[in-house]
Amino acid sequence: MSDVKEAVRSRYAGVAKQLSVIQAEPGVGCCQADGPDCGCSGSYSTDELNEIGLTESISLGCGNPTMLAQLVPGQVVLDLGSGAGLDVLLSARRVAPSGHAYGVDMTDEMLALANGNMKQAGVGNATFLKGSIESVPLPDDSVDVVISNCVINLAEDKGAVIQEAFRVLRPGGLFAVADMVELEPLEPALKERLDAWAGCLSGTIPIEEYRAALVDAGFSGPDFQVHATESMPGVDGKVGSAYIRARKPS
């Protein structure tokens, strides 16, 4: 395992342990566990959360990809880097009864937390798989929608992640993710810091580089909507939270 991947795994293993404690506390959000680096606010409605009996405290994302994807019953959904499982469980509710939602995560602690949340929510059409988002343990042309929430920026090889998303999508399938992007160049010293990479900062790439990776993988019509920006005090550069959509051609 590379230094970057181990830094990410270690950070989120620790976050999973904290979330196991704080998610039972009313009004406590994910920022208590993970800090403000990833944006934290997923803009989930109370009605959505009540559907599965969970709170936004288990979200570590920078948006709400389930809203972006506009899921319908019968679809198969894959969440890249599914963490504590919030987006998978919301997706499973939306695609029920005949659809299914999968989550892929490399962190044992997060997978244990997600499976516990699934049991608590009473969701029967979801599956959490251990694996890398650069090598998804699902067959070609097997899902209708790929979502992700502030995770692809954590990968060393983002091109490989995007190619895997293209591979598992059926023709006409939708790539709909929330992710952090680099809006103004970050200073080189920050780009080298493993803690900043695990914190969703130094692994970010410019929108045009992200767009090129989508086009190179075969996606059509990539669209980016930046909905929040963040500057770090005393650090050159700026990052932002973006909603990103693209299609696998039919």
How do the SSEs run, as a string of H and E? HHHHEHEHEEHEHHHEE
Spatially, the strands of the biggest sheet line up as 3-2-1-4-5-7-6
Basic shape: globular
Fraction of residues in H or I helices: 25-40%
Low-confidence segments: 24-42
Largest sheet composition:
7 strands, mixed
Rg for CA atoms: 17 Å
Going by helix content, strand content and strand pairing, the class is alpha/beta
Mean pLDDT rating: 87
Report the portion of residues in β strands: 15-25%
Count the DSSP helices: 10
Structure, explained:
The protein has 250 residues and is α/β, with parallel strands linked by helices. The protein is built from ten helices and seven strands. It has helices at residues 3-22, 31-34, 46-52, 65-69, 86-95, 108-121, 158-168, 188-191, 194-198, 207-217; strands at 76-80, 100-105, 126-130, 143-149, 169-184, 220-231, 238-247. The protein has a seven-stranded mixed β-sheet, sandwiched between helices. Strand 6 and strand 7 (238-247) form a beta hairpin. The longest helix has 20 residues, at 3-22. It is globular, with a radius of gyration of 17 Å. The model is unreliable at 24-42 (pLDDT under 50).
In short:
By secondary structure, the protein is of the alpha/beta class. The chain is 36% helix and 24% strand.
Helix-strand blueprint:
Blueprint lengths: L2 H20 L8 H4 L11 H7 L12 H5 L6 E5 L5 H10 L4 E6 L2 H14 L4 E5 L12 E7 L8 H11 E16 L3 H4 L2 H5 L8 H11 L2 E12 L6 E10 L3
